[in-house]
Design goal:
The structure holds three protein chains of three kinds.
Chain A: E1 2-7, E2 9-11, E3 34-36, H1 38-54, E4 57-64, H2 69-78, E5 82-87, H3 95-107, E6 113-117, H4 128-136, E7 139-150, E8 153-159, E9 164-171, E10 174-178, H5 190-196, E11 202-205, E12 220-226, E13 235-237, H6 241-254
Parallel strand pairs in A: 1-4, 1-6, 4-5, 5-11, 6-10, 7-10
Antiparallel strand pairs in A: 2-3, 7-8, 8-9
Helix pairs in contact in A: 2-5, 3-4
Chain B: E1 3-7, E2 10-11, E3 14-15, H1 17-33, E4 36-43, H2 47-54, E5 59-64, H3 73-87, E6 91-95, H4 98-111, E7 115-125, E8 128-135, E9 140-146, E10 152-156, E11 172-175, E12 187-194, E13 207-211, H5 221-231, E14 234-237, H6 239-243, E15 264-268, H7 274-277, E16 285-290, H8 297-300, E17 303-306, H9 309-322
Parallel strand pairs in B: 1-4, 1-6, 4-5, 5-11, 6-10, 7-10, 13-14, 13-15, 15-16, 16-17
Antiparallel strand pairs in B: 2-3, 7-8, 8-9
Chain C: H1 14-40, H2 52-63, H3 66-69, H4 73-101, H5 108-137, H6 148-174, H7 184-190, H8 196-220, H9 228-238, H10 260-268, H11 274-278, H12 280-283, H13 290-304, H14 312-324, H15 341-345, H16 353-366, H17 372-384, E1 415-418, H18 421-425, H19 430-443, E2 447-449, H20 459-463, H21 467-483, E3 488-491, H22 494-507, E4 516-519, H23 520-529, E5 541-545, H24 559-566, E6 571-574, H25 603-613, E7 618-621, H26 624-636, E8 644-647, H27 648-655
Parallel strand pairs in C: 1-2, 1-3, 3-4, 5-6, 5-7, 7-8
Classes of the chains: A alpha/beta, B alpha/beta, C mainly alpha.
The structure holds flavin-adenine dinucleotide (FAD) and iron/sulfur cluster (SF4) (2 copies).
One iron/sulfur cluster (SF4) is lined by residues 269-275, 290-291, 294, 346, 348, 350 of chain C.
Chain lengths: 259, 323, 668
């Protein structure tokens, strides 16, 4: 079973105050810590689990700069057999370009299963996986929260809204965009990462993939980023915990709930 | 006349709310720009649903075919590609749902139209749409334009627009012609599974005390559970709490959990990611307690308090039990 | 009839006997070899150095069983009798062999004294064995788990001594040499046979039974728990050897890299259960027991590193049994709080927490079974240099309105106050730092902190076995201390203190000037002695003191905090049921603060109830972990209003009139 997992290094922004940079095209990133995209962490774990169960070969691929190799070392430490970084050079790719580049790379590697995360934590597009699949003509499923492989087929469940799952059967090769909670990603030790840093990471240059010019043009143009309008929002309650509790109780009563 | 096309979404023989929300926005844009509003609906035995669309668009195109009975991204993509190629709408709307996360990218690849996902606002600017999207989990907004193309694809966030009729229509119903389906049978639908069945029904509660990742650890849950009990409310939670198996799935609020409509929703340590907030749009009053004063939840809540949820929960418990 | 040792009286097949002795000794040696090979299979075998403490311990604990007497007089006597009975009779046999083969000296008075001593030793032995049997099977001492070998060893030993007396008695029945009445044990049995003929007839039978049983014991010895007779003393000696650096590097083999002393530990344990009795986790009925851990590790290593595995046939057999063997069950290792209580009571100085850390390391490297919250905490530590908050900025927040000199921002001072992560981030523990700063300022001491640049010392990583991350933190922290030229350090937390004092030096390049490290209690005591702080405010309070494991058992600081408490006018100190070296862990150490385990119990509640039982108004502690654990337990054990938890700094600050505003009225 050949499995390819597409992963991304993203800035960790939960519990962080974000500030826009001067260009207003992005947030200031110099103080941010980079981590593996949460969804991708589940995807790589799922790949390793499949490999551990059925045997196989896991390749982790990322599109990024040299500093982003950290995410690949993490994947290697988790048990990936091979890692490829696609050097993005000066490109600042949007989802469609990422998908174009990654699909060109993935095409050249044998694969039965391709996994991606449902979305990335930074731009929240949620389409990279399906775009790759469509470019390669592969069958795919987004938001997969359970995956069982047997005899060239995958039994999957797809998370829909309202607590409903769709159960489907997919013939491999296929691409699945993995949802959080599908497994419990393992801990990756520092020693493991150190060990992994001895393994070779293959580097491919995005500009050398022979992609047509329009594939390397963004389909969306960022005009500006802006902070959410301040005006909307909650009336803020003040005071210590005790007085907050009093106010909350009062509001709940006012809204017709008896306590 | 240029057209805007809305792809209707339905499940279990009911139109989904997102369909009407998209039609609301689309009709507004059509009126302002002199466009025609088309809706398309795909499925099998969907006659009942067509009438629900009649008053919402200029034209309703219907594909009623056994092969479209269950959602299948390959079949749906082929049908919609044919439709778009034939009708050439300037903008096509889909919901930003798991369904269209599977479908929209295929349409984009096949039609060559650029795609913007999860948009919370859409405007037309000299014949080209511009969108507003949220990035970094809703902490930042971004305004995006499209590259030049003959058509544009947009997926719309659930709840971004009201499901209200902006104008009255009397649609002409058109039967669409099925194209050849080339890649059939690669993904077979086997059925639905309800993951939220359980002892507690959070959709019926008047008061929900809801916890998020801010609860910190499993050990803190009984304390809030008890609080909910004393207050006569029901305990619910955000997804990470379920992912960690701290609470069963049927407690989860949000797009992949349940939509709830309590009189009061008390959100403790929930950041306010849209997938969560989408589930509480029906709540009467939202009170949020979060220690991060910039948490997005404060933008949707009616009342907010910047505090440690454990302290507030303890104080609430004390005061409610006294009274 | 001369008065002398009689050898092989009436026994013809002497040579058969010697063949059997040969076999039994060979099996014995093979057994010892196989067990010592397991010891030698350890990774990084440390050099063993001569240590006075080791020799002293060997004398006191080895020869006199000092630690066995502690807390259990009967067990002490029992073991003393069995041990000396055993050694004595063994020596007796050695002497008699010498007498037969080398020089004949057991005659006349010498023989009589010899004989008499053996009688006494034999009786002691019997008394010891009987006590042991009674304790196990009649009194049913709860810490003993009776396994088959426990019974068989006692029964066999008893049988050997008994038949020994009978052999003697039957011999005496035939001819009673003059003065032989000193052999009073044998004399009793001499009346058993009804006639001389009968005695002569049964004698060889009893003799053979006695010999065979004894030879069997010898052969079985290294394969049973009797092996502790050899491994125990080695272990006692090894215990005082300096801590070893286990540098697990990239090339380290998979699986727990047990050290030399771990292996000796495993083979020396007698399953006496003392560790279980004091282990906070085991005694709270969590699914963990240090004894079981040691026993499992023993089984596991004995099979895995068995020297017979060099032989193909055995290897194949062994592989089967090793793979069938449950691994050292990985769930249980997270329960240990590393409180060191087990080491304190183990008669042969086994501390389960050390090898447990080795298993933790291998679990951490494996990754998929690491408890959920721990994964998150370690990742937070790696990314944000503290296990608590996903932000570096908040480290200085506890300052509030206090003026705290920042050594990384140009302030100059001799003494660096290392605040520590928990004290910096936990809102309750911040009170400790605020009070300490006030006291230091009040005393006019020049000091400073590392501000927002302070790192995590790596305690959590170390305790849970994340050695790579720990090394990373050591490097970072030592670099930071060097950058700001820090040579004198005071820590809030006994955990940081212990690391700096005992474990960092192992990573320091030789020749580097050692850092002076103190815990805040030491600094406060010094300030008090120098008259720089004088608690004046009278507080009529009854307080009790909770000894933090890492201050007490790890660093032997028991008195400084007590002297400080007593110096406050009006304050009376009462002790809990467990205090000093016997103190009971609050449950927060060993990384337990950052884990959630199945069936875990609130260890802190056990402790807080003990504190409440003293009738004290306040329980004082000197560790931020203890502070937050006990504070939480007060709430969950419904003791609010009856008992308060305070850090010693807070109490001292109060008595100096430096208390937090609005807090004063709540004391007393
Ligand atoms: C396809 C898809 C479907 C999804 N479906 C759902 C869904 O149905 N429901 C859902 O909830 N999520 C869903 N999610 C996940 C969603 O994107 C967010 O990740 C999730 O809602 C975040 O949950 P949270 O607010 O509890 O956690 P976080 O975003 O981590 O927020 C925790 C908050 O707690 C605050 N906090 C921390 N400690 C304290 C304290 N002591 N006191 C007070 N405040 C504190 C922090 O400041 C923070 O704001 C879905 C995601 C995807 C991609
Ligand atoms: S480890 Fe020590 S205290 Fe524990 S059972 Fe073994 S010998 Fe006894
Ligand atoms: S160190 Fe403490 S918790 Fe760990 S095994 Fe020993 S007694 Fe038990």
């Amino acid at each position: 079973m050949n499995i390819i997992v597409c992963v991304k290094n993203v800035p960790f922004t939960q519990e962080v105050d974000l500030v826009l940079d001067a260009s207003k095209q992005d947030v200031k990133k110099d103080n941010l810590v980079y981590v593996i995209n949460e969804w991708d962490n589940y995807a790589i774990e799922e790949a390793i689990r499949i490999k551990e169960e059925t045997g196989g070969h896991v390749t982790a691929v990322t599109l990024g700069k040299e500093a982003d190799e950290e995410v690949l070392r993490r994947c290697l430490a988790m048990g990936a057999d091979e890692a490829i970084r696609v050097e993005r050079g000066d490109l600042n790719p949007d989802a469609s370009m990422i998908a174009a580049i990654l699909s060109a790379v993935v095409k050249t590697i044998p694969h039965d299963i391709i996994l991606t995360g449902v979305q990335s934590d930074d731009l929240n597009n949620g389409i990279t996986g399906s775009l790759i699949a469509e470019r390669l003509g592969l069958v795919h499923a987004a938001v997969v929260n359970s995956l069982k492989i047997s005899e060239g087929k995958a039994q999957i469940s797809i998370e829909l809204e309202g607590g409903q799952d769709e159960m489907s059967q997919v013939t491999l090769p296929a691409l699945f965009a993995i949802q959080t909670g599908i497994n419990e990603p393992r801990y990756v030790s520092i020693m493991g990462i150190r060990k992994a840093s001895k393994k070779e990471i293959k580097v491919i240059d995005a500009s050398g993939l022979g992609l047509p010019g329009e594939d390397l043009q963004p389909s969306l143009i960022m005009e500006e980023m802006f902070m959410p309008p301040e005006t909307e929002g909650a009336e803020m309650l003040q005071g210590d915990a005790g007085s907050l509790a009093d106010q909350i109780i009062r509001i709940i009563r006012e809204k017709g709930v008896s306590l | 006349m240029a057209k805007i096309l809305v792809i209707a979404e339905h499940r279990n023989n009911e139109l989904r709310e997102i369909t009407l929300q998209m039609l609301n926005k689309a009709s507004e844009l059509c009126r302002a720009n002199g466009h025609e509003l088309y809706a398309a609906i795909l499925g099998n035995n969907i006659e009942g649903l067509i009438s629900g669309l009649k008053e919402w668009a200029d034209k309703v195109i219907v594909y009623n075919d056994p092969r479209l009975k269950d959602f299948n991204p390959d079949n749906y993509r082929d049908v919609l590609t044919a439709l778009i190629n034939e009708q050439k709408p300037i903008v096509t709307f889909l919901g930003h749902t798991p369904w269209s996360m599977d479908l929209a990218p295929g349409l984009s690849v096949k039609t060559g139209f650029p795609l913007a996902t999860d948009c919370v606002d859409i405007t037309m600017d000299s014949g080209r749409p511009k969108v507003v999207r949220q990035v970094y989990s809703g902490k930042i907004f971004s305004r995006m334009a499209f590259r030049d193309a003959s058509g544009y694809l947009i997926t719309v966030r659930a709840g971004a627009f009201p499901a209200a009729k902006a104008f009255d229509y009397q649609a002409e119903i058109i039967q669409g012609a099925m194209p050849d389906l080339v890649t059939q049978g690669r993904r077979e639908f086997m059925g639905y599974r309800d993951t939220c069945k359980g002892e507690v029904d959070i959709t019926q509660a008047e008061l929900l005390v809801s916890i998020g990742r801010g609860i910190g650890e499993q050990d803190n849950i009984p304390q809030v559970q008890e609080l909910a009990g004393i207050m006569g409310g029901t305990l619910s939670c955000s997804r990470p709490v379920v992912d960690k198996k701290w609470l069963p799935k049927y407690h989860q609020v949000g797009t992949s959990g349940k939509s709830v409509k309590p009189k009061v929703y008390l959100a403790l340590g929930i950041s306010g990611a849209f997938q969560h907030v989408a589930g509480i749009s029906g709540a009467g009053t939202v009170i949020a307690v979060n220690k991060d004063k910039k948490a997005p939840i404060f933008r949707v809540a009616h009342y907010g308090a910047v505090a440690d949820l454990l302290n507030v929960a303890a104080a609430l418990k004390e005061k409610v039990s006294v009274k | 009839m001369p008065i002398a040792r009689i050898h092989f009286w009436g026994i013809d097949s002497k040579y058969l006997f010697y063949i059997l002795v040969g076999i039994s000794v060979a099996v014995f040696l093979l057994g010892v070899y196989s067990r010592v090979s397991v010891w030698l299979a350890a990774v990084n075998r440390e050099k063993v150095i001569v240590s006075r403490e080791g020799i002293l311990n060997l004398l006191m604990d080895g020869l006199f069983g000092r630690r066995i007497f502690k807390g259990d007089l009967i067990a002490g006597l029992m073991h003393f009798f069995i041990m000396w009975g055993f050694i004595g009779l063994f020596l007796g046999t050695v002497l008699s062999t010498t007498d037969y083969w080398i020089i004949h000296f057991l005659s006349g008075d010498v023989y009589l004294i010899y004989s008499f001593c053996l009688e006494i030793l034999g009786l002691m032995f019997i008394a010891g064995l009987l006590t042991a049997l009674i304790r196990r099977y009649i009194a049913r001492v709860s810490r003993l788990d009776n396994q088959a070998q426990d019974l068989w060893i006692l029964v066999l030993l008893f049988f050997c001594v008994l038949t020994g007396f009978m052999v003697e008695g039957v011999r005496l029945a035939v001819n009673m040499p003059e003065g032989e009445s000193v052999s009073f044990g044998g004399v009793i049995f001499s009346s058993l046979p009804s006639s001389k003929e009968q005695a002569e007839a049964v004698y060889p039978i009893i003799w053979w039974v006695h010999s065979l049983a004894s030879l069997f014991l010898v052969a079985w010895f290294p394969f049973s728990k009797l092996f502790h007779v050899l491994a125990g003393p080695v272990n006692i000696y090894m215990a005082s050897q300096p801590e070893a650096v286990v540098s697990r590097d990239e090339e380290s083999p998979e699986g727990p890299g047990f050290l030399f002393r771990d292996m000796i530990n495993f083979s020396a344990c007698t399953r006496c259960g003392r560790c279980n009795e004091v282990c906070p986790s085991a005694s709270a009925m969590e699914p963990f027991s240090p004894r079981e851990f040691i026993a499992q590790a023993n089984e596991y290593t004995r099979l895995r590193y068995n020297p017979l595995s060099r032989i193909k046939w055995f290897r194949e057999k062994l592989i089967k049994s090793v793979s069938a063997l449950p691994e050292i069950s990985p769930e249980q290792i997270w329960y240990c709080t590393t409180c060191r209580a087990c080491l304190e009571v183990c008669p042969i100085y086994i501390g389960a927490f050390e090898p447990i850390r080795r298993v933790r390391t291998s679990e951490i490297e494996e990754g998929s079974r690491v408890p959920n919250l721990l994964t998150k905490s370690l990742e937070t530590l790696y990314m944000f240099d503290n296990p608590w908050e996903r932000s570096k900025k908040k480290r200085g927040e506890w300052f509030g309105d206090l003026a705290v000199p920042d050594l990384t921002a140009g302030a100059k001072a001799d003494l660096c106050y290392f605040v520590g992560c928990t004290t910096s981030f936990d809102t309750r523990a911040q009170g400790l730092a605020r009070s300490f700063v006030k006291i230091m300022t009040h005393a006019g001491v020049s000091f400073g902190t590392l501000g927002q640049k302070e790192t995590c010392c790596g305690d959590i990583a170390r305790r849970v076995g994340e050695e790579g991350l720990f090394e990373e933190q050591v490097k970072k922290t030592m670099g930071l201390l060097k950058t700001y030229g820090i040579a004198d350090l005071v820590a809030s937390s006994p955990h940081c203190f212990n690391l700096f004092r005992n474990e960092y030096p192992l990573y320091q390049s030789p020749g580097a000037t050692p850092l002076r490290v103190r815990h805040y209690t030491q600094v406060l005591e010094e300030l008090m002695e120098r008259g720089l702080i004088k608690p004046v405010k009278r507080m009529d309070l009854r307080v009790t003191y909770h000894d933090p494991c890492y201050l007490g058992r790890y660093n032997n600081i028991y008195q400084a905090p007590r002297r400080l408490i007593r110096s406050i006018p009006g304050v009376s100190l009462v002790e809990m049921a467990h205090y000093g070296p016997d103190s009971l862990c609050c449950g927060g150490g060993g990384g337990r603060l950052w884990q959630e385990l199945e069936d875990e119990k609130k260890l802190s509640e056990v402790r807080i109830r003990e504190a409440a039982d003293t009738g004290a108004d306040i329980v004082i502690t000197t560790c931020p972990y203890c502070l937050i654990m006990l504070e939480d337990a007060v709430k969950t054990a419904d003791l609010e209003g009856r008992l308060r938890v305070m850090d010693l700094n807070e109490l001292i600050a109060e008595s100096l009139g430096l208390g937090e505003e609005g807090e004063e009225s709540t004391i007393g």
